[in-house]
């Protein structure tokens, strides 16, 4: 494979080590990393897109223009029976399809359970179960202070500039927007959002999400970012984008140079499976980091995609190798058309339990549920506090062993809350439920 930088002025992130400013973020890419061993994906690219030059392939505009958006087209790349084709055509009248050639080439066409496929290719269950859930589970439309701006938390706002994305994720929280076609907020609408932020001095953090803000041209994005940067009380700007995952070629030097002029800017991206952490994706994260833009990851817990300790651990470890910090693991919102991808909250808690202590703490995300009706995010944790008094706590470690932990003197615990029926709540007696033999070995150490 030719490395993404080999032949194109559009992909110039690591042009030569001499051009690179010294980086304190990490060592530079080595040759071995720039020329990854041929993976299934690169072989597949050659097979599926034999006539596409490296110049085109690595040009994000080519990737964007050539997104696969019909079942007809898709059937050239993935084997689909006639019945599947007609059923999926029906699905796309309600929930359209869009996938980049790059992301499509990561799919193993012979595996119907492929985690990349399940995130990008429609499923009949989207319409079969469409009655379940809400259109707008987070009540964003009702809660917008001006169109496109949600001010739910005291010091930060969410700004949605467009509903266009490089790929339409099947588990999208804003699936409701898909039927409105692609829209981008016009100048007057953006000005209204900026006006609100200017008038609200408490807003110190602006999250630009979407739709994907990197679908805007770098010039247009710069207009918005520079206007935000001109507001004295806006301390940080965050971009929520899936481009590093689905179209990493977008993260070119032009974009990174622009972002580096308006820092502190943080990027939150959205990897859900270790198979997405390709050399191209890693390189796009590396470019952002070198531009002084920290990259964090927000994954969504998805049934049959990443709902096991093994898959999630592999993902989080791959992210750390890419120098990307796992930030949130989201419970999948109750969005219409995503019911088949949702799993229980308990599954998420068990996954966290399988990560904490078992792998680098840096690789353990916070598990959050974004409450319906605009209740906001709550973080959920495995229960490690077995019991608690003013003198001491009994805590469970990652192996299931119990330890006493002494409080400093003079601690007063809040009074137990009265339950509705007049009794007081109490801590349930602790039971080990791991079923792995540790029950017998559980000890309390003084
Ligand atoms: C998630 C979210 C934010 C950012 O939340 P953090 O917990 O600070 O990452 C801000 N506004 C809205 C409306 C959100 O949904």
Structure notes:
The chain is of the alpha/beta class. The chain folds into two domains: 8-128, no CATH class; 144-444, Alpha-Beta Barrel (TIM Barrel), CATH 3.20.20. It contains 18 helices and 14 strands. β7, α16 and β8 form a beta-alpha-beta unit. The longest helix is centred in the first third of the chain and has 13 residues, at 82-94. It binds pyridoxal-5'-phosphate.
First and last CA, distance? 59 Å
Overall strand count: 14
* Assembly category: single chain
- Highest CATH level, the class of the largest domain: Alpha Beta
> Main β-sheet, in a few words?
10 strands, mixed
Unreliable runs, pLDDT <50, ≥5 residues?
Answer: 1-38, 424-443
Radius of gyration: 24 Å
Order of strands across the main sheet: 1-2-3-4-5-6-7-8-9-10
The helix content is 25-40%
Mean pLDDT: 86
Name given to the CATH homologous superfamily of the largest domain: Aldolase class I
Q: What is the CATH topology of the largest domain?
A: TIM Barrel
Global outline? globular
User: What class would the helix/strand composition place it in?
Assistant: alpha/beta
Q: So how many helices?
A: 18
Strand content bin: 15-25%
Bound molecules: pyridoxal-5'-phosphate
CATH architecture of the largest domain: Alpha-Beta Barrel
Tell me the number of structural domains.
Answer: 2
């Amino acid at each position: 494979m030719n490395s993404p930088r080999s032949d194109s002025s559009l992909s110039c992130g690591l042009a030569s080590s001499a051009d690179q400013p010294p980086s304190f973020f990490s060592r530079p890419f080595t040759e071995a990393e720039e020329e990854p061993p041929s993976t299934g994906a690169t072989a597949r690219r050659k097979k599926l897109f034999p006539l596409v030059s490296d110049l085109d392939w690595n040009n994000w505009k080519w990737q964007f223009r050539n997104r696969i958006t019909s079942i007809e087209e898709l059937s050239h790349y993935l084997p689909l029976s006639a019945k599947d084709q007609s059923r999926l055509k029906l699905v796309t009248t309600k929930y359209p399809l869009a996938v980049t050639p790059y992301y499509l080439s990561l799919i193993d066409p012979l595996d119907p359970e492929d985690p990349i496929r399940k995130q990008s290719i429609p499923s009949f269950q989207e319409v079969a179960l469409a009655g379940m859930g809400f259109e707008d589970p987070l009540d964003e439309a009702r809660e917008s202070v001006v169109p496109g701006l949600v001010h739910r938390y005291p010091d930060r706002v969410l700004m949605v500039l467009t509903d266009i994305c490089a790929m339409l994720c099947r588990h999208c929280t804003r699936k409701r927007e898909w039927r409105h076609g692609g829209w981008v907020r016009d100048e007057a609408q953006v000005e209204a959002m900026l006006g609100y932020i200017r008038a609200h001095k408490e807003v110190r953090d602006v999250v630009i999400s979407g739709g994907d803000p990197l679908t805007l041209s770098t010039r247009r994005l710069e207009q918005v970012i520079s206007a935000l940067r001109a507001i004295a009380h806006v301390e940080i700007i965050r971009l929520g984008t899936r481009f590093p995952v689905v179209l990493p070629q977008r993260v070119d030097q032009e974009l990174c140079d622009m972002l580096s002029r308006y820092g502190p800017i943080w990027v939150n991206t959205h990897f859900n499976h270790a198979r997405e952490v390709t050399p191209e994706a890693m390189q796009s994260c590396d470019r952002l980091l070198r531009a002084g833009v920290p990259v964090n990851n927000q994954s969504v817990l998805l049934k049959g995609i990443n709902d096991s300790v093994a898959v999630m651990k592999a993902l989080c470890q791959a992210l750390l190798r890419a120098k990307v910090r796992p930030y949130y693991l989201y419970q999948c919102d109750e969005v219409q058309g995503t019911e088949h991808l949702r799993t229980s909250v308990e599954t998420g808690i068990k996954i966290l339990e399988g990560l904490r202590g078992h792998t680098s703490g840096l690789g353990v995300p916070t598990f959050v549920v974004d409450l319906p009706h605009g209740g906001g995010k709550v973080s959920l944790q495995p229960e490690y506090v077995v019991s608690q008094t003013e003198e001491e706590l009994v805590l469970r470690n990652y192996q299931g062993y119990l330890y006493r932990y002494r409080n400093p003197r003079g601690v007063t615990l809040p009074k137990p809350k009265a339950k509705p029926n007049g009794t007081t709540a109490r801590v349930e007696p602790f039971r080990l439920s791991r079923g792995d033999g540790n029950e017998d070995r559980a000890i309390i150490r003084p």
